[in-house]
Amino acid sequence: MNKITVLFLITIASVFCNTVSSQANINGAIKDTDGNPLQGANIQLSPSNQTATTSADGVFNILNISSNNYTITISHLGYKTISDTIKVAQNDVTLSFTMEEDLLHLQTIVVTGIFDPRTQLESSTSMSTLSSKAIQQEYPQGTASLLQNIPGTFTDASAGEVFTKVYTRGISASAEDDTGWYYVSLQEDGLPVSLVQHSYYSPDLFHRLDLTTQKVEALRGGSSSITALNAPGGIYNFISQGIRNKFSGNIQFSNGFQGEGNALYKFDASIGGPLGNNWFINAGGHYRHDDGARNTDFTLSKGGQFKFNVIKRNAFGYLKFYGKILDDYTNRYTGVAATNWDNPTPAFGQDFGSTSLLMPSFNGRIPDGRNLTQGASNSFDPSQGVHAKDLAFGFDISQNLGNNWLLKNNIKFSAKDANWQTSISNAFVSLSDPTLYYLVSNGNPFPVGQIVFRDTNSGNELARIDNSGIFAGTGSQYLTGNTLPNDALMGTSAWYKDNTADEWMNQFTLQKTLENHDITGGFALGFSDTSLFTQGSFAFATYEPNPRMLQVTLENPGDPVIALSDSNGLSNYGGLFFVNSRAKVSQVATFINDRLKVSNNVHLDLGLRYETIKHKGSKDRFAPFTQNGGLDGNDNTAYDNGILAPTGEQDNFNYNYSYLSFSGGINYKIDDEAALFARFSQGHKAPELNYYFNNFSNVPINKKGEVQEINQAEIGVKYILKDFSFTSTLFWSQLKNIGIANFEFDGSNNSIFYTPIQFNTSRTIGLEWQSVYSPVQNFTFRFNGILQNPKATEWKVYDAAGSVDTSDDSILDFSGKTLPFNPKLMFNLSSEYQKDRIIAFLKWQFMGNRYGNVSNGFNLPAYSIFNVGAGYQISKNLSADILVTNLFNSEGLANFFGANSFGANANGATPEFIAANPDASFVVFPVLRRRVLLKLNYSF
After folding, report:
1. Where is the TonB-dependent receptor-like beta-barrel domain (predicted)?
2. Which of 374, 395, 644, 665 could form a disulfide with 679 if both were Cys (CB 3.0 to 4.6 A apart)?
């Protein structure tokens, strides 16, 4: 027994010693294709499930590995995943890997439009990502300008940084110029920038792009119906800088020139790193001074923002506190006059590249119609444009609760203010047009006789006319040798708007992971307390490329001189527009989603969302202020005789919109490099506040708006090869219950009104694609775009025949026409070269033909824009880049506003109208001309 025992112990000891001696370590290094170490790469060993992360030097260590054969998997955001088999014996193993860039980010984790983060390849959505590198290759023109790089996304940034349009897949009908983000959600870190929209109040007012943005994730349609608040058309999520394991950052100075030598200066910074004990911070922002791409006598944009986040990482997740302070002035360009319907060319001495037709800067004061008896007034200076302010703070938490439960909650409060002081409309108004004189004071009194026009700056008389002939059909006659440019004035309004909103929003999710299910439930809340005040006054300005303000008087011999304008050229104080409204908006949604694992390669994604939106508010009724001599009691001043003021009556609205949305998708992962997906979604779009604010002028708000229905189906493929990656999606989308009302002007009584709403339907079928090809080292080619067939399947427009009188009205039927402002072909093609310290790129952006209205009466021709850039790494920390946008000064037309007359709209330019008015002028929005930018970047 003793011998047997001793032999057994010796055997056990031998086995133990052999086992100990067979333990080994794995040491490795990971670099990119340029030989630079990659920090933060994740390494997983299977079947042991041991993990590691690379350090700043790109190295990793996994200790005490038993002898065996293993599969090692290496992943990193923005790079292709590596999977390899290794053999571990008695000796340590030294490994070296080179990770190739995932050019389409198909193996990058995305968080937008899905409830559980996963790679793009594994998702059943049409998703695109813009990296910080791609963002830095864009001229800092604004949010919409950047998003034109997203396949299938139509953007119109011809007016500048704001007053932009963004939409996808023909879901566009209510995305008007003044509510251009109607169907999509502009987000920062997963929550909307703004909860509400109405005329001239869209989320782009409160969003600026700088180095604090790490990447952009864009979802087109699909699951946005169940993952976003009232935004079934898509999500554009700007994601801020996250955890940095060591202090690092960028400081960047940009100096640009645009148009006819107008300057841009911009300073950006983004700095972040650890604070100790698993605390991390990021902070940054920008300041800019921009003279604009078109000619104005004032700075177009100035101001900036500051953003920060503080993150606490723990064993179960993270806590993040973040904030933003935005204080920024910008403006937007109005249209340019053109003639020749078949081949638009600039008219009246204007230029598609440089003309802005904005009123010049001056310091005026206009009585505040809300508080006339208190003597209140508002300052008015067109150089202010829109002054946007946003103070936002939020708290984001993600915690693993154990037993496969995950809780997330993101909450944000913001206080917003947007004050507009700018011009609206810039139409040609003949000196012989009675409308011109009626607009002075709503016809009270109607000025007849000798009208004198003087330059407000010099006081010099520019022209003197006799307008009494307009009643005899002979028109106005000059009384001296001096004339006004183009024998006309600019039909424009001094437009004052004051918008405020206090908003609170929250997104809460709770996720349970089971063997074959990832079930996510939660709720989204949004509350906005908002107000709107709009006041419009007529302004006398010359109709020429650089308008001058005019002081205008009526000087009939033997009669007192009547001032038709004040010393700044302002007339008909507050007599053109008056809207004073307030609203409380609540959005409450609950949702549930199940990602079902059918097999190792097939996942089914099913989600429901029930949403309730409540609009409660009021709108003041108004009437002209009546007093002999107007507000100042002086019979010799006509400019204050028609001020619109509240009557004390209000029209209230209190409506609820509730609907159930659905989205289901399936993903078949063929292998680690390829996947097929399909999805069907049914979403809804509740009306925005412009439904109440724009309509129901001095009448009861006796009905709620219609909820639009959006149906979408898509099927696509995603594929990754060594030197070629692509995604392609075939889609069908339908938009129903589209309420359409036109802005109209009745020259006989100076009435501005909206026509009765007509409800319509559109359908779009198309193919989106996105591809990257790198045939040889250092060269990369990118190609993305959309080919589509957009149709206005059922479409009617109310024709008011140019007057409030309904006896001559009719309804026009344009069913079966091509849906306007949706190109049949649109793409981006680019090439990039990068080696050692040099990078260079060339981009071609093509915009196909689009119709400018639903009657298909006017066609916006196709155009191309070429952008080039180059960069050089001067030292380890310092780099320089030069960017040129619109290299060849394309004169492409991005938008169309109809005939060049006060109160006209695009839908009025029917084929019949154009045939009857072949020589008429009209208003178009050209793309912005060449811009050159030099950037110096210091990174550390």
Report:
1. 332-887
2. 665
Number of H helices, E strands in the chain: 7, 57
Residue that the structure tokens 């946007």 belong to: 388
CATH number of the structural domain spanning residue 67: 2.60.40.10
Q: Can you tell me whether residue 483 is helix, strand or coil? A: coil
Residue 273 placed within a domain: no
The token duo for 885 is 């946008």
Distance separating the N- and C-terminal Cα atoms of the chain? 72
| Cis check: omega of the bond before 700, within 30 degrees of 0 | no
Residue 203 sits in the same domain as residue 150: yes
Q: Is residue 907 helix, strand or coil?
A: helix
CA distances to 318, 396, 546, 750 from 518, in Å:
21, 21, 62, 61
**825 belongs to a structural domain:** yes
- 676 in the same domain as 754: yes
**pLDDT confidence of residue 443:** 67
Given a cut of 50, whether residue 16 has pLDDT beyond it is no
Asked if residue 445 has a cis previous peptide bond (ω within 30° of 0), the answer is yes
Per the structure, how many domains does the chain have?
A: 3
Q: Are residues 92 and 113 in the same domain?
A: no
- Nearest CA to 175 out of 199, 196, 159, 152 is that of 199
pLDDT the model gives residue 49:
66
Q: In what helix (H) or strand (E) does residue 189 lie, and over which residues does it extend?
A: none
Q: Are residues 89 and 168 in the same domain?
A: no
Residues 595-628: tens digit of each pLDDT: 999 999 999 999 999 999 999 999 999 999 888 8
d(CA 232, CA 218): 13
The whole-angstrom separation of Cα 360 and Cα 455 is 12
Q: Give the model confidence (pLDDT) of 677-703 as tens digits.
A: 999 999 999 999 999 998 888 989 988
Residue 741 in domain: yes
**Residue-wise pLDDT tens digits, 474-495:** 899 999 999 999 999 999 999 9
Q: What is the pTM of this model?
A: 0.91
**CATH of residue 442:** 2.40.170.20
Q: Which residues contact 31 (CB under 8 A, 6 or more apart)?
A: 37, 38, 58, 96, 97, 98, 99
pLDDT (tens digit, 9 = 90+) per residue, 636-682?
Answer: 999 999 899 999 999 999 999 999 999 999 999 999 889 999 999 99
Per-residue pLDDT reduced to its tens digit, 757-786: 788 999 999 999 999 999 988 899 999 999
Q: Are residues 153 and 285 in the same domain?
A: no
Place of tokens 């947007």: 418
By residue range, what is the domain housing residue 29?
20-99
Identify whether residues 116 and 90 lie together within a single domain.
no
The residue type found at 610 is Y
Cα separation of 911 and 638, whole Å?
A: 41
Q: Match 């193996």 to its residue by tokens.
A: 107
For 66-160, strand residue ranges (E) read 68-76, 79-88, 93-99, 109-110, 118-119, 127-131, 153-156
Are 412 and 548 in a shared domain? Answer: yes
Residues ≥6 apart with Cβ < 8 Å to 648: 621
- 330 within some domain: yes
Q: Is 381 exposed, middle or buried (0-12, 13-18, 19+ CB in 10 A)?
A: middle
Q: Are the C-beta atoms of 921 and 337 separated by less than 8 Å?
A: yes
User: What secondary structure letter does DSSP report for 742?
Assistant: -
Task: Characterize the bridge pairing of strands 336-339 and 345-346.
Answer: antiparallel
The pLDDT score that the predictor gives to residue 271 is 96
- 112-116, 377-381, 384-388, 716-720: lowest mean pLDDT where? 112-116
Candidates 241, 295, 291, 242; CA nearest to 268 is: 241
Q: Are 252 and 284 in contact (CB under 8 A)?
A: no
Cα four-point dihedral sign 221, 227, 228, 231: positive
Residue 845: pLDDT band with limits 50, 70, 90: very high
